[in-house]
Specification:
By secondary structure, the protein is mainly beta. It has a single domain, classed as Jelly Rolls. It is built from one helix and eleven strands, in the order βαββββββββββ. The radius of gyration is 14 Å and the shape is globular.
Length: 147
């Protein structure tokens, strides 16, 4: 897991060949004006999901992992707390290959708060529980990047 300011996102392009495309997309688009929905950038290898969701409690937010994709999550409006547990500490559960997701029971080991102007990268090794907030509406973008 990586947490940083959006001004530093370019420092991470060496971690995956598609990260430069994410940086270019962020620089060339007004994320706040994008409507909800999927924006395909490079086919199934890279796309952006713009979502508006209601904040959840820690108990409502389910830990999840992805096998094929890396998440780069960026809050656009609202402050969001995200739970984190290393995947090695999670009890094995059934994987949904069609949706590339595994859900886990229980609370996260740690929590971090992300503000607009920041980002977090979750790799397949990172269990994460997003959208923890008291906000009625959280707008965010989740870049799905093939690992």
């Amino acid at each position: 897991m990586i947490i940083d300011s959006l001004t530093n996102i370019g420092k991470y392009v060496a971690l995956n060949p598609l990260f430069q495309d994410v940086v270019d997309y962020i620089r060339n688009n007004d994320l706040a004006s994008k409507p909800e929905g999927k924006d395909v950038i490079k086919g199934d290898d890279l796309f952006a999901n713009f979502v508006v969701t209601k904040g959840k409690t820690k108990e409502e937010a389910k830990l999840e992992t992805h096998d094929k994709m890396i998440d780069i999550q960026i809050p656009i409006s609202g402050v969001e707390t995200m739970g984190y547990t290393p995947r090695v500490d999670l009890e094995e559960q059934s994987y949904n290959a069609e949706k590339d997701i595994t859900f886990y029971d229980g609370l996260a080991q740690q929590y971090v708060t992300i503000y607009p102007g920041m980002f977090v990268i979750f790799f397949p090794e990172d269990g994460h529980a997003p959208a923890i907030s008291n906000a009625e509406k959280l707008k965010k973008v989740i870049f799905k990047v093939k690992r």
